[in-house]
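Why this split exists: single-chain examples teach little about how molecules sit against one another. For that reason, every record in the complexes split bundles all components of an assembly together and asks for one structure covering all of them. Below is a record exactly as it appears in the raw files.
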Amino acid sequence: MPKRTGLFIAFEGGEGCGKSTQARLLYNELQRHDVPALLTHEPGGTPLGDRIRKILKVKLDFNIGPKTELLLFAACRAQLIKDVILPALDKGTHVMCDRFSGSTLAYQGYGRGLDLDLIESINNAATGGLQPDMIFLLDIKPETGLRRKHNTDSDRFETEDIAFHRRVREGYLELSRRDPGRWTMLDADRPAETLAKTVFDLVYPILNKAVP
Ligand code: TYD
């Protein structure tokens, strides 16, 4: 993998946790400080990924098997890394990504029950070993998160039963406990501005070290 100078920050969490808002607020704040930054998301972020995203999200009249789902997310990720994330990091742009490999472990692993080692190896094949330098987990009770999303049309994941969303949450908590150097768990049931300040205060000193 080529030498990277940008910092790679991922935002993770269950439905309605507010991670997209936090990724955007951090991106806006970095721009305000004239720090080179890029905001992207998964699944999607490339023309191919955006098409696969539609298939993965809408309710279909056929079934997508868990392994197929895993591979489709991995395909999106491989393309996003090649076309968007690595070129940005290589030129010193800091990347904020709304969901990354952690989502696959939480949703397809803990949620769907696929073997975690299998997911790790597929993730690894898709990413070429690229991992976020920092991951923010916006932790929220599934009931609260899903209620926040109630006024939008529910997609294939949001309509999973509550037990699925509880497994996803527990999975995320387990992932963050296992790798505290990379993951920061935040209580997402707090005002967006308060969370954004916490995130910025944690990221900014590290950015200053990362930028030569
Ligand atoms: P999206 O609209 O991006 O949801 P959110 O706003 O919650 O991020 O839809 C992405 C959905 O795909 C979301 O329900 C989580 C799921 N997902 C996985 O199951 N595995 C993955 O690897 C990724 C990236 C997302």
